[in-house]
């Protein structure tokens, strides 16, 4: 999830845990605990772009890191707040829940999380919720604002925090249900349309959970398309993108290419834009793909110009958005 959502969730968890004993300091501890896995942003100051793609949501989002950092936070909080009547075991449970919740939630996005680092480089991607979904984030965000305003001894503080957490949790379960329905629907359609594949995923289009981006294919290439929960057609309009692995011959063996292939989890294609070799990671969708069936992929990496890739994950995420494209997204969500 985005950083602001993690902060709001952590603050609500802190208030629910010890707001009546520590006041707003409990919210601060919760926000810090929820934010600590994202300390991996520091790697960007000394690593190149392709290495940083793997460092982000890597070791600091692993179970080993959770096990290491939880007692450090617990011992620190227990010592700083003496005298108090909160046992060290409760501090451990609190920070364990806070930090584990962060790495669990991030796995529901399409970036991938290194739960098993450094023992395995396998990344977990459940692909059930968009990385910045306002329908998930608004509830803990509103709760946080209320908690910052009302007084420490206000009787509604705890229930405000709990409500923010509970509604977001219910929405996440709703997203998981949506994904299950979409996967069932899409796999039937792919079978009817005689689309054979060895790799497949669905993930929500930006900012919502009703329109889903679909990718299915193999080492030769991938079909992409969009499917709404409200579509009533028994077919899908799919676009085919050849993988074009042969284009990689001039850069085969380069470290950045190895990093990119590993990061993409094999969901990639290669293109030639004039004289520029471009690596596309299909997992992040297409720029305005619901409106432009052959739209460029959000994640496109210039293999022969590494310095032009500093914002490669963000570069195309909202490129070209305006009132008309937002209206087109809404119409596509409503179904065909």
Structure description:
Helix 1 runs antiparallel to helix 2, helix 1 (3-22) runs parallel beside helix 6 (134-149) and helix 6 (134-149) packs antiparallel against helix 7 (157-192). The mean pLDDT is 93. The strands form 2 sheets. Strands 1-2-3-4 form a 4-stranded antiparallel sheet, with helices on one face. A 3-stranded antiparallel sheet has the order 5-6-7, with helices on one face. With 336 residues, the protein is of the alpha+beta class. A hairpin with a 2-residue loop joins strand 5 (268-273) and strand 6 (276-286). It has helices spanning 3-22, 24-35, 49-55, 63-80, 88-106, 134-149, 157-192, 255-264, 323-333; strands spanning 199-204, 211-217, 221-228, 239-242, 268-273, 276-286, 297-302. The chain has 9 helices and 7 strands; from the N terminus they run αααααααββββαβββα. It folds into 2 domains: 3-174, no CATH class; 193-333, no CATH class. It starts with a helix and ends with a helix.
In short:
With 336 residues, the chain is α+β, with helices and mostly antiparallel strands. The chain has 9 helices and 7 strands. A 4-stranded antiparallel β-sheet has the order 1-2-3-4, covered by helices on one side. A 3-stranded antiparallel β-sheet has the order 5-6-7, with helices on one face.
Layout of strands and helices, then pairs:
Elements: H1 3-22, H2 24-35, H3 49-55, H4 63-80, H5 88-106, H6 134-149, H7 157-192, E1 199-204, E2 211-217, E3 221-228, E4 239-242, H8 255-264, E5 268-273, E6 276-286, E7 297-302, H9 323-333
Antiparallel strand pairs: 1-2, 2-3, 3-4, 5-6, 6-7
């Amino acid at each position: 999830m985005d950083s602001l959502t993690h902060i709001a969730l952590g603050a609500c968890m802190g208030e629910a845990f010890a707001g009546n004993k520590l006041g707003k300091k409990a919210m601060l501890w919760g926000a810090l605990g929820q934010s600590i896995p994202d300390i991996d942003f520091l790697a960007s100051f000394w690593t190149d772009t392709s290495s940083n793609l793997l460092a982000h949501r890597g070791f600091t989002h692993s179970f080993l890191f959770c096990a290491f950092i939880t007692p450090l936070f617990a011992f620190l909080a227990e010592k700083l707040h003496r005298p108090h009547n909160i046992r060290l075991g409760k501090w451990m449970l609190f920070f364990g829940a806070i930090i584990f919740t962060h790495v669990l939630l991030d796995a529901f996005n399409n970036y991938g999380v290194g739960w098993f680092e450094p023992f395995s480089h396998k990344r977990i991607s459940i692909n059930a919720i968009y990385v910045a979904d306002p329908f998930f984030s608004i509830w803990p965000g509103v709760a946080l604002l209320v908690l910052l305003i009302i007084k420490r001894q206000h009787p509604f503080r705890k229930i405000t925090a709990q409500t923010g957490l509970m509604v977001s949790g219910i929405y996440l379960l709703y997203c998981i249900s949506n994904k299950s329905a979409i996967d069932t629907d899409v796999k039937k359609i792919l079978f009817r349309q005689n689309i054979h594949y060895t790799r497949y995923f669905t993930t929500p289009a930006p900012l919502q959970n009703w329109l889903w981006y679909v990718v299915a294919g193999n080492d030769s290439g991938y079909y992409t398309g969009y499917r709404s929960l409200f579509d009533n057609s028994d077919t899908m309009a799919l676009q085919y993108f050849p993988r074009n692995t042969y284009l990689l011959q001039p850069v085969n063996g380069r470290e950045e290419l190895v990093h990119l292939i590993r990061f993409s989890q094999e969901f990639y294609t290669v293109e030639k834009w004039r004289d520029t070799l471009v690596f596309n990671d299909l997992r992040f969708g297409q720029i305005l793909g619901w409106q432009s069936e052959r739209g460029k992929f959000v994640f496109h990496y210039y293999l022969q110009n590494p310095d032009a890739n500093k914002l490669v994950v963000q570069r195309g995420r909202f490129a070209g958005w305006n009132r008309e494209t937002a209206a087109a997204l809404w119409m596509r969500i409503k179904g065909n």
